[in-house]
């Protein structure tokens, strides 16, 4: 019995050492576990050190997953490039439109920029939308919308990646296997309404729709695109059916920047021809289109 207890103790210590600080492994094992009687709907993270995401003593709320949660615990940060880019470049009073706002972490950072006077968020996943409202509750100039943008109005299948609470999409993939139904409205109509009501502000549009962003971009009217001052467009590739439309609409913008952390750390200005080269890398990137 003593030998067995010793072995158990040694084994336990071995696994603790192996798993220590490997938060992704811990949280992923939770996500893959059976939860027949109860669940942990979300967790609260209290910051003891200030970062661009939260001040010391502040609490943020998010779902347990294997990517976003461990990343924030380890670094205290979340996708800072939009915040840093706008903090450096933004010179006029602006409205930030956050399509696919998820937990609201991008908007939470953006709200700290002096020239951001209003934020409008769109998030179709009700559970995560409610968390974003909790995370943004101290910001007075936020308008919340519990639906997403699509090419037409309706309730559509929305696919979830269990490993990543930021990976919901209208496009199914090997990672996105869990199916939900959520509400969507026509992107171009929503943008038209925003433009008409906010004529005194520069418009900054960010879409993070996990592969559906180019579909939205190509569906927006030329007239509306010309009224956007900055467009943060997440993408990986462009389909053959969208190529001509996509590049024609990119030409409407005066400058193009790219953020692609897997290729380079900095955000750099590029040409339209260079976009094709980035698509050849088959990695996720963000285009910043500026008028």
Describe this structure in words.
The protein is α/β, with parallel strands linked by helices. It has 2 domains: 2-75, no CATH class; 81-290, Vaccinia Virus protein VP39 (Rossmann fold). Helices cover 34% and strands 26% of the residues. The protein has 11 helices and 14 strands. It has helices at 2-19, 23-31, 68-75, 81-89, 105-110, 126-135, 187-197, 213-219, 222-226, 243-250, 272-280; strands spanning 43-46, 59-62, 94-99, 116-122, 142-145, 148-150, 154-161, 168-169, 176-186, 202-207, 230-235, 255-259, 267-270, 285-290. The strands form 3 sheets. It has an 8-stranded mixed sheet. A 4-stranded mixed sheet has the order 6-9-7-8. Helix 6 links the parallel strand 4 and strand 5. The termini are far apart.
Poorly predicted parts: none
State the separation between the terminal residues, measured CA to CA.
Answer: 74 Å
User: Can you tell me the CATH topology of the largest domain?
Assistant: Rossmann fold
Helical content class: 25-40%
Q: What is the tally of helical segments?
A: 11
The overall average pLDDT, rounded, is 91
Helix-strand sequence? HHEEHHEHEHEEEEEHEHHEHEEHE
Radius of gyration: 21 Å
Largest beta sheet, briefly?
8 strands, mixed
Record the strand order, biggest sheet.
5-4-3-10-11-14-12-13
Oligomeric state as shown: single chain
CATH superfamily of the largest domain: Vaccinia Virus protein VP39
| Count of domains | 2
CATH class of the largest domain: Alpha Beta
Write down how many β-strands occur, each being a DSSP E stretch of 2 or more residues: 14
Shape descriptor: globular
Summing up helix and strand content along with how strands pair, one would put the structural category as alpha/beta
């Amino acid at each position: 019995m003593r030998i067995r207890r010793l072995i158990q103790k040694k084994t336990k210590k071995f696994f603790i050492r192996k798993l220590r600080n490997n938060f992704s492994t811990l949280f992923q094992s939770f996500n893959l576990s059976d939860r027949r009687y109860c669940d942990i709907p979300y967790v609260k993270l209290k910051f003891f050190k200030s970062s661009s995401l939260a001040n010391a003593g502040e609490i943020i709320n998010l779902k347990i997953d294997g990517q976003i949660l461990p990343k924030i615990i380890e670094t205290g940060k979340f996708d800072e490039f939009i915040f840093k880019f706008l903090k450096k470049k933004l010179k006029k009073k602006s409205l930030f439109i956050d399509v696919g706002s998820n937990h609201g972490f991008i908007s939470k950072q953006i709200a700290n920029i002096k020239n951001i006077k209003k934020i409008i968020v769109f998030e179709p996943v009700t559970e995560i939308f409610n968390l974003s409202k909790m995370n943004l509750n101290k910001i007075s100039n936020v308008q919340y919308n519990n639906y997403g943008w699509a090419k037409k109005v309706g309730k559509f299948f929305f696919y979830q990646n269990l490993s990543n609470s930021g990976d919901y999409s209208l496009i199914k993939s090997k990672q996105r296997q869990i199916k939900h139904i959520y509400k969507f409205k026509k992107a171009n109509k929503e943008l038209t309404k925003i433009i008409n009501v906010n004529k005194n502000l520069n418009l900054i549009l960010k879409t993070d729709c996990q592969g559906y962003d180019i579909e939205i971009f190509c569906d927006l009217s030329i007239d509306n695109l010309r009224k956007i001052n900055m467009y943060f467009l997440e993408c990986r590739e462009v389909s053959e059916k969208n190529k001509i439309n996509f590049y024609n609409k990119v030409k409407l913008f005066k400058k193009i920047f790219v953020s692609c952390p897997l290729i380079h750390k900095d955000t750099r200005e590029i040409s339209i021809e260079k976009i094709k080269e980035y698509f050849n890398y088959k990695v996720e990137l963000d285009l910043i289109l500026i008028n």
